[in-house]
Amino acid sequence: MTITVASYNIHKSVGSDGQRRPERIFSVLAELDADIVALQEVDRRFGARATTFEAEQLEHATGYRLVRHAVRPLSSGWHGNAVLVRGGIEPLQGKRITLPALEPRGALMVDLDVGAADPLRVVAAHLGLIGRFRKRQAEAILEALAADERRLPTVVMGDLNEWSARGGCLRVFSQKLCVNAPGPSFPARRPLFGLDRIITSDDVEVVRTAVHHTATAREASDHLPVTAELRLPEAAQAMSSLAKRVGSGG
């Protein structure tokens, strides 16, 4: 089966005009029409870390449901990260990952029933601004994935803040996963840098990737969303991939 995933840094719902207008974010999400979306910067950064949109507003406007993992009463995300699903996709279990950093950083790991042979494991992350910490944060995510004895089809999505095309945290991720580069996504009005990435396990086939470049997206945030169409393994493929990992000690 195939599904579409997307990653989008919504910049606390503040657009290129400096105005906080979550309805523009909702319009972009409707344009994306993805099955699963990883969001970054859904909450304000300081104080109570209050959300920039309510889950009920989101669902009414777009049909997306928020997978709830916030620990602060006024937040929608975990360190600003959130996962959205739609249709018949159902969350099974999730884990909050604290990432090493000078500034507060975290990632969400959520297992989703997407109707395939196995659940899809989704990691939503927003890595830091300092290069050496980005590498350590990538290592922490890989360690969290390895700590679970189940080897599920996996996609890691987010704003990695990695300016290098292949080095830094991308090199760390590429040791275990497949790093995909949809294209330049930042800054939204004139994208030059591919800060937003979609990373997959080797049993997930990437059919295509893209940067969602529309007039609405250019105004809604300082990042453009990135998308990927993924083909998930059938049961036989999943068992074959698992057997290879076991045989290689991976």
TrEMBL record:
Record's keyword annotation contains Nuclease: yes
A Pfam entry, by short name: Exo_endo_phos
One GO-annotated biological process of the protein: GPI anchor biosynthetic process
Keywords, alphabetical: Endonuclease, Exonuclease, Hydrolase, Nuclease
GO molecular function: endonuclease activity; exonuclease activity
GO cellular component: membrane
Domain Endonuclease/exonuclease/phosphatase: 6-223
Entry keyword Nuclease: yes
Protein name: Metal-dependent hydrolase, endonuclease/exonuclease/phosphatase family
Organism this protein belongs to: Caenispirillum bisanense
